[in-house]
């Protein structure tokens, strides 16, 4: 990934902010969709952003939530190997935000202002950290995709390609591990909240 290593810290943060804007757009779209159409909770729409699935155990909810995170990160990881994979990164962030917005809107539409505590405890912490992980994953997707394009045009040597691939895979595995920690923490928060409510 050495072709973009010249970016300073400020430029990297600007990059993160731009990606976060796609996520926020998804949150707004998801909230509007939920309010307008009021669909029942579904994994495809709400993406386990909050425990709004009736009749599902907490363990099952957490395992599905982690599995969805792995699938999303894996999609980002695989797209990084394609020279034209860049446009799909923002779409992953919009989809992620859509689930967060729809889940929050579902709780508010179901419980009114009483849902404020549930949103603050059950959605916001997980949404923040899982979104940050995906933003970092998409950033790596974009960097890897640009690097792949440069390799196609003969802009790098094979010894650099091997090192870049190892670094890319390592970053992916680290993000998966962080996602597991987030899912486990989310389980603890849900159990604590259930015990206090």
Short description:
Helix content is 79%, strand content 0%.
Summary tags:
197 residues; mainly alpha; disordered N terminus
Sketch the topology as an H/E string, one letter per element: HHHHHH
First-last Cα distance: 48 Å
Structural class: mainly alpha
Could you describe the largest sheet, including whether it forms a barrel?
none
Structure in words:
The protein is mainly α. Helices cover 79% and strands 0% of the residues. It is built from six helices and no strands. It has helices at residues 9-37, 43-46, 58-79, 88-111, 115-152, 158-196. The longest helix is centred in the C-terminal third of the chain and has 39 residues, at 158-196. The N and C termini lie far apart (48 Å). The relative contact order is 0.17. The model is unreliable at 1-7 (pLDDT under 50).
Strand and helix map with partners:
Blueprint: H1 9-37, H2 43-46, H3 58-79, H4 88-111, H5 115-152, H6 158-196
Helix pairs in contact: 1-4, 1-5, 3-5, 3-6, 4-5, 5-6
